[in-house]
Amino acid sequence: HITSYTKHALVVSDCDKQQKKVDPYVHYLGETSLPLNMPPNAMKSSYHDEMDGKNAAATDGISQMENCEIHKADENNKKEMIGEDVPSNEYLLNVAFISFLGFTITQASVAVVAQSQAMIGDSAAMAVDAMTYLFNMYAERQKNKPIEDDGVTPRAVLEHQRKILRLKLEIIPPVISVFCLLGVTCYVLRDAISTLTDPEEEAIEDQPNVHLMFFFSALNLALDVFNVSCFARAKKALGYLVIKKDIERYGDDKECIKPIFQTGRKSSIVDADFEIDSPTASASYDSITDHGYETHLSISSDVDDVEDEENVEDKINLNMCSAYTHVFADTLRSIAVVIAAGLAAIFECIRPEASDSVAAIVVSFIILISLGPLLVGLFVSIRELRALYRTASEAKDREAEILIV
């Protein structure tokens, strides 16, 4: 009897489960607390409304997941289109610094043995190039370094200070490069012109070794082509950046400058645009705190907004422009020495010392021409740095006048 009763109970339990699975409406009535006097049609309507809501929510959840997947796919496609795997500025400068430094040491030693003025001048210029790459790499690293919030200094002050530091780092290396290259050029030009204007018959062992000149200049040319290809692969040829990516990473150079000046318990936040003397400038007070006065002076200008949008593609990273200028100039110098050494080796009528002197003069003129973009960029950065200092000073003066009033 006990066994038959247990079997009967199991059968009844299975039937109940099947009934609940088959008829979800009965399960709904058992789970919800609807009024007992509620008409059957109303119960059915409530049940269907709730089921429709659950289905709609489930559908929305699925659509949101699908949209999320689509968004992720779009982001991946954008990254692939932009080229996230392209070399960074620091990587390019690191490769250029190591390759130039290593080759400079080797070529300088060979230049002394070969007694080539052109190779000596090129080696000195490459040493300056390597030093410039080191400074440029440090400047780019400082530019990419995130702002460290100490919890005391306002973030606007930190951003303003980093912008000034970035401009200084973009100015100092090119200035050093210009003076060093000018010194090297004057030294090489003087010896080369002296050799051409006052030719003397030299012993064979004292003449430049054109074969060493040709071999090492060809190696130098291959090294330059490698570095130029790295710049081109990163889309930074001629020093120009993909400006939209740099604006996203570093911020616009002409964005609002926000220096904060604090005096005692009074503090003010000054928001100033690149040009502070705009006729559309406006000032307004916003808040007074219990612990002291907090004045928000908002000085805004719309003069440069349209100009910034139109000229956004014309902005130059002076560090990368300086680096690429050195690489490109060294490429031209290598070509000049290769041609001079090749002509002296092929044609016996061309004296090696004369060929070497002509190559040295060509190298010197290439160095002087390559200084043009650096000088232009220097003037632009110096003007921008002065504008930052002037804007901060004028904003502080305006703040003092308003506080007095």
From TrEMBL:
<feature type="transmembrane region" description="Helical">
    <location>
        <begin position="327"/>
        <end position="347"/>
    </location>
</feature>
<feature type="domain" description="Cation efflux protein transmembrane">
    <location>
        <begin position="173"/>
        <end position="376"/>
    </location>
</feature>
<dbReference type="Pfam" id="PF01545">
    <property type="entry name" value="Cation_efflux"/>
</dbReference>
<dbReference type="GO" id="GO:0005886">
    <property type="term" value="C:plasma membrane"/>
</dbReference>
<dbReference type="InterPro" id="IPR050681">
    <property type="entry name" value="CDF/SLC30A"/>
</dbReference>
<dbReference type="GO" id="GO:0005385">
    <property type="term" value="F:zinc ion transmembrane transporter activity"/>
</dbReference>
<feature type="transmembrane region" description="Helical">
    <location>
        <begin position="210"/>
        <end position="232"/>
    </location>
</feature>
<keyword id="KW-0472">Membrane</keyword>
<keyword id="KW-0406">Ion transport</keyword>
<keyword id="KW-0813">Transport</keyword>
<dbReference type="InterPro" id="IPR058533">
    <property type="entry name" value="Cation_efflux_TM"/>
</dbReference>
<protein>
    <recommendedName>
        <fullName>Cation efflux protein transmembrane domain-containing protein</fullName>
    </recommendedName>
</protein>
<feature type="transmembrane region" description="Helical">
    <location>
        <begin position="91"/>
        <end position="114"/>
    </location>
</feature>
<keyword id="KW-1133">Transmembrane helix</keyword>
<feature type="transmembrane region" description="Helical">
    <location>
        <begin position="171"/>
        <end position="190"/>
    </location>
</feature>
<feature type="transmembrane region" description="Helical">
    <location>
        <begin position="359"/>
        <end position="380"/>
    </location>
</feature>
<keyword id="KW-0812">Transmembrane</keyword>
<dbReference type="InterPro" id="IPR027469">
    <property type="entry name" value="Cation_efflux_TMD_sf"/>
</dbReference>
<keyword id="KW-0862">Zinc</keyword>
<keyword id="KW-0864">Zinc transport</keyword>
